[in-house]
Amino acid sequence: MYENLALLAAFVLVYSSVGGAIERTWISGPIIFILFGVLIGPVVFDLHTMEIDRDSVRGLAELTLALVLFIDAASADIGVLRKNRGLPIRLLLIGLPLTLLLGFGFAMLLFDGLSLFALAILATMLAPTDAALGKAVVSNKAVPVPIREGLNAESGLNDGICVPVLLVFLELALGEGGEKGPWALALHRLVEEIGIGLAVGLGLTFITAKLLKLAMNRQWLSDIWIQVPVIALGFACFAIAQALGGSGFIAAFAGGILFGIRAKDLRGKFLHAAEGTGDVLALLTWVVFGSVVVGQAWGDFGLTVLLYSVLSLTVIRMLPVYLSLLGSGIDTEGKLFIGWFGPRGLASIVFAVMVLNSGLPNTGPLAMTVTCTVILSVICHGITANPWARAYGARRASRKRTDA
């Protein structure tokens, strides 16, 4: 145990010392984290003795994603988001269904021996985008604010929306739908997951925001304990919603949005430390993913898996986004930029573990495809995030000066 702790602590110490410099380059943090995990894993140097099972990977990924969603939502510029709400609405109501349909269609063409429900499950697992991997874009000041806020809102909500869809397909694939038809089952799941998630996230955050304002006014919070509430609230929103049968991701994101509104004047003080905790959890998640999953799965990727993964990051994502943004006033490069920066990460990992633990037969190709897509996403989106964001921002600024 102590050797494992020393190894991880030393890596966190070194990376935290140079993280700011690395973030300004074309190399992203997750690339380094996964590479470190592969190096210390059993395939290369076999330096750690951690026994990590599927549930551990899922638990760590879920907590990381919940905290990142809450923090990103709380940090959002609500005024800009409200003014440009058409962008995330288009991406979620038009782009996401088209992505699911296109992913299902390509899966039918490429994969043999899988049921239609299994193919639908694959498309659903790879539909949501990752708020943590997309941070390099949504926090880059060179990217226009409406696009940043739109991508942030999309990534915060699409995984929560995909949870009930995934559960419906799983139940149908396992023959557990009962007497309900697929549409009735889907409606029930959507209402349950989203309704409970919203109720928990909004209700708990409303009460907590009032309590924190009272505590601040009466000086009950110390400089040390002021760093804790946002972390605890993000985890509480997620865990309570999950325990009640709702979507913890919807709860975390909705709670974060409300916290940003109700505690607008105080959120800077509360969010600073929480962001650091979220970054550390993301680091550990990607190290574990690299060590436990990537290193052992790398040699098992076949041509079909690789082809579908590439399509998932390009045509399956970018074409629906482009179509959904027609008539929005966003230029061609902007549409392509938004379509490309739909990284796959923590949500897809969580979904893959859920499917592996469901008892569904022949899940190997599904898990391999998700793993391959996430690896490609970490590398490709990580390398292109800063260069394209800077170049796109510069071109937009130049066009504005020319028009003026």
How many DSSP-defined strands? 0
The tally of helices reads 17
- Average pLDDT: 88
Largest sheet: none
- Secondary-structure element sequence? HHHHHHHHHHHHHHHHH
Distance between termini? Answer: 63 Å
Oligomer: single chain
* CA gyration radius, whole angstroms: 21 Å
Structural class: mainly alpha
Helical content (DSSP H or I, runs of 4+): over 70%
What does the model show?
This protein is mainly α. Helices cover 76% and strands 0% of the residues. It is built from 17 helices and no strands. α3 packs antiparallel against α12 and α9 packs antiparallel against α10. The longest helix is centred in the C-terminal third of the chain and has 40 residues. It is globular, with a radius of gyration of 21 Å. The model has no long low-confidence stretch (mean pLDDT 88).
Topology:
Layout lengths: L1 H22 L5 H12 L13 H22 L2 H6 L2 H25 L5 H10 L9 H4 L6 H29 L8 H36 L11 H15 L4 H15 L4 H31 L5 H11 L1 H10 L7 H9 L5 H11 L7 H40 L1
